[in-house]
From TrEMBL:
Pfam families: PK_Tyr_Ser-Thr (PF07714)
A GO molecular-function annotation: protein serine/threonine kinase activity
Residue span(s) of domain Protein kinase: 1-263
Keyword NAD: no
Protein's name according to its UniProt entry: Protein kinase domain-containing protein
Keywords for this protein: ATP-binding, Kinase, Nucleotide-binding, Transferase
Species assigned in the record: Selaginella moellendorffii (Spikemoss)
Keyword Kinase on entry: yes
Length: 263
């Protein structure tokens, strides 16, 4: 929902499901996380309401809504060119690096996906929706019996064994990055295959693909200006593949991913 404060500024209003048994806990969790962090690539909390009948968060209003809408819905009439997509990838990477390495408590988001990336008037990204995030004081992670997040984005060690570490967010980021490069949802079918399956094929074949003549660009959105941006697009694809490595120990940290993206 959208609202207006007394000072005339527009805000986005989010109300949690009052019938959810976990609604109160989710709200308190999100509130404790959001109020403890400040970063240009994280959605800013303007206010909140917590009483018997209402659990409401009031965020800054972001004119361009979610990346999901602009990237996948042609009805918006907005085409994201490569410089804009790269800006979004790098911004999300910086936001995640802050959550993992820059805040007082290590925070694992657990649900990095296109619909949780909001865009301001300059199409700068802001990570939102911390309902299922986890706070840590160390990097060992923990094992969960309840898998939370969005299928298609989830790291294999988390899906199969419930092991949650910051490397699960890194995997989420890798999948999201491939969506941004390709312009396709990770769970859409292409040529009878899921995109995530195509990603795995590229990943397993990574060693020889690098010796091909720009083979990685086949996954890129062909509407992009590949001729003038091929080097940067290739670098981003390589970072995404590293982030979606099946072995979590082989994935880079988000800080390293930022450095790799920056060249």
């Amino acid at each position: 929902m959208q609202g207006v404060l007394k000072d005339g500024s527009e805000v986005a209003v989010k109300q949690l499901d009052l019938h959810s048994k976990q609604g109160q806990r989710e709200f308190v969790n999100e509130l404790s996380i959001i109020t403890s962090i400040q970063h240009k690539n994280l959605a800013k909390l303007r206010g909140y309401c917590l009483d018997r009948d209402d659990r409401i968060l009031v965020y800054e209003f972001l004119e361009n809504k979610s990346l999901d809408q602009l990237l996948f819905e042609s009805a918006t009439g907005i085409f994201l060119d490569w410089p804009t997509r790269f800006q979004i990838v790098l911004g999300v990477a910086n936001g995640l690096a802050y959550l993992h390495e820059g805040s007082q408590k290590q925070i694992i988001h657990r649900d990095i996906k296109a619909s949780n990336i909001l865009l301001d008037h300059k199409l700068h990204p802001k990570i939102s929706d911390f309902e299922i995030s986890k706070l840590f004081n160390q990097e060992k992670g923990f094992t969960s019996t309840v898998i939370a997040g969005t299928m298609g984005y989830l790291a294999p060690e988390y899906v199969l064994g419930g092991l949650l570490t910051v490397k699960a967010d890194v995997y989420n980021f890798g999948v999201l990055t491939l969506e941004i490069v390709s312009g396709q949802r990770c769970n859409d079918r292409k040529d009878g295959r899921l995109l995530v399956h195509s990603v795995n094929l590229l990943m397993f074949s990574y060693a020889w693909i690098l010796h091909e003549n720009s083979s990685e660009l086949e996954i890129a959105d062909q509407r992009l200006d590949l001729e003038h941006n091929s080097e940067e697009i290739l670098r981003v694809i390589q970072v995404a593949l590293a982030c979606t490595h099946e072995n979590s120990a082989s994935r880079p940290s988000m800080g390293d991913a930022v450095a790799m993206l920056s060249g």
